[in-house]
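Kindly draft a polypeptide, keeping tokens residue-aligned:

***
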Amino acid sequence: MPINIEYRGPADLPEIIPVFPLPGALLLPRGQMPLNIFEPRYLAMVDDSLRDGHRLIGMIQPDVAHSPKNSDKPALFRVGCVGRITQLAESGDGRYILELTGVARFKVVEELEVLTAYRQCKVDFFAFVDDFTARMGEDEVDREALLSVLADFLKANNLKVDWEGVESAPNEALVNALAMMSPYGPAEKQAMLEAPDLKTRAEILIAVTEMDLAKKRTSGDPPLQ
């Protein structure tokens, strides 16, 4: 999806961003994520991001394994992805329907003590400078293996796909869209997020899917959800 502003590198992004902790949510550069915003603190977050003009929200997963029990402020994974609000609609019942377009991944430097109800972090984008270059490293992706495991997954789950659209998609768009839509858990999503390059992300997606299919074949269990 086109964005009205060009982000050429880390210096084009703010050092402090609002973050939206959401388990199982995976946003990747140039990927699109729909969001249904209804909690008051996140409605305020959207309003503030629009008012400030940057229109940016950092998507990040809670790190449940390292969070205090019964905490309303779980620990966060150290890597997330910032997205720009590229579509916004009001529902008429107090909700926002958003679409975020991924810009770049970030590392959390520190979470700030803030007065806002939503959380804010100081972040560093320099570790992921390649994210600012579209289609970086996509020639290294094993597209044939990716399409093969996709076909096996669809068959095992009685699903259909627009193969014409799949076959015409560039490798970056294909890998990132499949990773974001994949039904796997937070750990697998985080591994795909933190992959150093597109080739490695595709390999993780293939490996996780093959393990899921093997489990289903040998045990009769349903695929990972």
